[in-house]
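Regression report. Comparing outputs from two consecutive submissions.

Submission 1:
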Amino acid sequence: MAPKLFDLLVAGEINPDLILTGDIEPVFGQAEKLIDSADLEVGSSSAIFACGAARLGLKVAFAGVCGDDFFGRFMLAEMTKRGIDISHIVVDPALQTGLSVILNRGGDRAILTHPGCIAALRAEQIPDDLLKKSRHLHMASYFLQTALQPGLPDLFTRAHTLGLTTSLDPNWDPSEEWRNLDTLLRSVDVFLPNAAEAQSLSGAVTVEAALDDLGRICSTVAIKLGEKGAIAVRAGQHARVPALAAAVVDTVGAGDSFDAGFLYGWLKGWSLEHALGLGAACGSLSTRAAGGTAAQPLLDEASRYAGRNLG
């Protein structure tokens, strides 16, 4: 069998983050407030994940849709700079690239998002020829990618038929209805929710019970617990790791960086504990700078911290 061109194919949304940092609260009535800094950074769960995976040394391709505008061109340039293959991204001049404006204040943040073409990608825009070149298919922001949802079961089936494994990070459901994932989860090899998402989806009272419930559907489940670390189950085997102590500047994208680290270890055939440890290290280290990608670690750094974390 010919070697695969890409370790990861990401089917995802494309939009930057404008991060405004300062200890202020906006007030209507034309009241002007001064902030400490403003940074335009790579945004969207899928793109931040892709950047983190490429930073670790994986070969990454991205399938998505953006507009032919400043924000779209910014995202394409930033992904290219990080070595991500963008040749399968559709640039549609009739659409407008989305944007999230994030007011970052200490350990909390407020977010305003213009969806733009976040929901534009369709499953039929991901051809078998691209799948054949890839080892693994990852999707994030399930509840925002509404045009992709109807074709996902078929896309995941196509991926499995062509020898790929699959993963899903659902992210938060803005409607809080948590619908239409039951069937899809049975086609997911690695499921990567955070604690609130896992409990909302499973209906479980505790995150441990949610892990066991979801682990009966997906062969591997890793749940992000923020400052408490992460827990996982694979084929009945459980693991737990603490988070790293880090000087937190911004938690945007930490879960996506965790996903990149965990999937790196999972694709390399590492033990569950070591894959979870790398995920926790990548997630924690990514919080050291504003934005989701500025502090994402290289593999050597993440592995060094993960080793300390695992003792």
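Submission 2:
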Amino acid sequence: MKLSILLIAAIALVPAATWNCRSQLPTEPINQLSAGEAQEGWKLLFDGKDLNGWRSYRKPTAPDHGWEVKDGVLTCVGGAHGGDIITEQKFTDFDLRWEWRVPAGANNGIKYLVTEDRPSAPGHEYQMIDDAIVADKPKETTASFYDVLAPGPDKKLKPVGEWNHSRVLVKGNHVEHWLNGKRVLTYELGSPELLEAISKSKFKNSKGFADKITGPILLTEHHDEASFRNIKILELPAK
């Protein structure tokens, strides 16, 4: 009788142990749209295999070095000088989402409302950085509109080396920055508040920097390592 009870107890523990093990594994495949996302019109900007759909900034082809695709992850190789890359497609109103991670001390960013006619200030940058190296510069921390607007103080950034989830929403003149499920920054293109903030930034002499334009998405190359996955976008009706 005691043996039977012990056997039943051991069997009962197996599913729990199996569940605990499985809970540490990814629940969904990366770089794939769900059926619901596909039906809504989401598009992958990175297929997990290569740089199809991307090219170097102000160049007709993709870079031949400095960007690496491995195990479904797109990585900007630190110190390789691969240059910025942009999507071949341009966007006006959109919901852009992606996952990213950087090692300690690293700096990177995604730019939107990008133009190739103003290389000194190609677009608005959603900053992605190890906040420890810019702790005294809020306008340069993660999820800021780089050097223009700081994110809110209640943002939740994961430790370096872990994956963060970010989002940029552009609808009409309204722009939002999100980090790990929380909206941390909003602003209005062309507004007096934005113009004033730009006038105090390094972009103060960049003509048209506060304007709404149609342009590609840009991944920056700041000489540091940065990795990306699940980059997807939903084009929104023009407002």
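Expected: both submissions complete independently.
Actual: both completed, but the second showed a warning that disappeared on reload.
Relevant detail on submission 2: DSSP finds three helices and 13 strands in the chain.
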